[in-house]
Amino acid sequence: MQQKKNISVLLGAAFLMATSAIGPGFLTQTTHFTQTLAASFGFVILMSIIIDIGAQMNIWRIIAVAEKRAQDIANEVLPGLGYFLAALIVAGGLAFNIGNIAGAGLGINVLFGISPEMGALLSGIVAIAIFVVREAGKIMDRFAQLMGFVMIALTLYVMFTAKPPVGEAVVKTFVPDTIDVLAIVTLVGGTVGGYITFAGGHRLLDAGIKGKEALPEVTRGSISGIGIASIMRIFLFLAALGIVAQGLTLDPSNPPASVFQLAAGNIGYKIFGVVMWAASITSVVGAAYTSVSFIRTFHPILEKYHRWIIIGFIAISTLVFVLVGRPVKILILVGSLNGLILPISLGVMLVAAYRTKIVGDYKHPLWMTIFGVIIVISMAYMGVYSLIDGIPKLFE
């Protein structure tokens, strides 16, 4: 019975992380870069998967062994660092949640023709309902799994109707025509940047899956999360590639919608509505849950009322979108900053892995440390490069 419960929680954590990653930005980025890089985008996906796995395996393992959330580990590494990390995560999570709510509103608009604002309001109510009930954790796990399966199945159908040149995609994945650094940073930031990589790690901790004895399960769960997000990314890439290879033009105002519509007509457009809503609503839930998990250990009152704080987080995100609209420049700016959160958070975790007062007698595998250090250095370099290059353009 316990093993069955653990499998359910592990699946839930993996899907929570994956569906947190698969949001409106994920859909737009994937189709945009497929349009600009064509089959060579496969190489960017391959590089991002390798980096994602290295980052997530390190972070989830250290959280499990320390049996503490990331902000508490960071405060033990250097007093005050946990508060700084929490501030970065919460600010990024709130800004992205406004975009996630906007995406959910757009999905409802495509499906039923009502305004995106009203769709966002209804979606916010659905997300809040998950956390109102006492068994919020279990419902969140099941909801993430159901929406994850729905997104993957529908995108797979659209991929087949688009008839992509799979052979060319495979070749260019290993021998690309061009290598786009900004695309790699964007994909990694969108899959394991900011709050996303901690979504599943903190969920396992809440469910009691922790300690050295749980490491095999934790490792499986971390790789599964990246695997689920990557499957969705590959299906969407191939669907978009099929359209681009036919010489058809994607609508720049909504590239993913035009992929679905050009591949499968009006049915495809409605399928896009379902996928967009599922991707957005699960990201709303994941962002709110994980962002609040970064502050709830700072005071007993925050711990006691954390579910209501999550509800408030979703309500604020929804109201900002409904009243103000989507603050595109803020979202882009925070997106760039999100790419910089990963090297900071992963760097802190790698230092913590060698502090006995945090991890006890646990010995972190050397290959994992080396892998992690390479990711920290390369993502810091690429993140700064994209930030310096991107900010001036943003405010021109």
From TrEMBL:
Molecular function, one GO term: cadmium ion transmembrane transporter activity
Keyword ATP-binding (UniProt): no
Topological type in the membrane: Multi-pass membrane protein
Keywords from the named record: Membrane, Transmembrane, Transmembrane helix
Protein name: Divalent metal cation transporter
Cited PANTHER family: SOLUTE CARRIER PROTEIN FAMILY 11 MEMBER, TRANSPORTER PROTEIN
Gene Ontology biological process terms from the UniProt entry: iron ion transmembrane transport
Annotated InterPro entries: NRAMP_fam (IPR001046)
Transmembrane segments: 37-60, 81-102, 108-131, 143-162, 182-205, 226-249, 269-295, 307-324, 330-354, 366-388
Entry-linked Pfam families: Nramp
Coiled coil: none
Chief location category: membrane
Location within or outside the cell: Membrane
GO CC annotation: plasma membrane
Source species of the chain: Anoxybacillus kestanbolensis
